[in-house]
Fold this sequence. Notes:
By secondary structure, the chain is of the alpha/beta class. It has helices spanning 21-34, 52-60, 78-98, 109-114, 120-129, 145-150; strands at residues 11-15, 39-43, 64-67, 103-107, 135-139, 153-156. The longest helix has 21 residues, at 78-98.
Amino acid sequence: MGNCEERSGLVQIYTGEGKGKTTAALGQAMRAAGQGLKVLFVQFVKGDPLCGEHFFAKKYKAFEIAQLNNKSSFSQSPEELRLAAEKALGYAEKAVFEGGYDMVILDELCYALSQGYTPLPRVLDMIRKKPKSLELVLTGRGAPRELIEEADLVTEMVVVKHPLEKGIKARKGIEY
């Protein structure tokens, strides 16, 4: 491997209808933290602190998770979700520009953009002005074309087969 001192941070996107976008980002967080990088994982829209990643982060203190929505996203109106996304974006911008992080993950930001909860020009501006060394990871369904064009790595998760098709519901420790 090359010299990591002059590390250049990229923009990664995990999008698509398939399962695994947040899981891939959590893998990135774990790998980065394992190498001593300072990582922040900001959750847009999501409002469930009972997910396994929250318990992991609290127990092992490997990286920080910020979840600014204090209610279940399934029971909120679009306006409540827009306000939650606005709060998360403000938090994310401060972290990107002032937090001294090596990696910032914006979980479900693409979904917030696709639903109109978050303004695309503001996100594109943040990406274009981010510190050169910062790795920025974005997840969520419906990544806009302009965002995809701005990214360095884009992975689309595609559903081939899913347990929901058999009526199997989300399982503790697997899907959350």
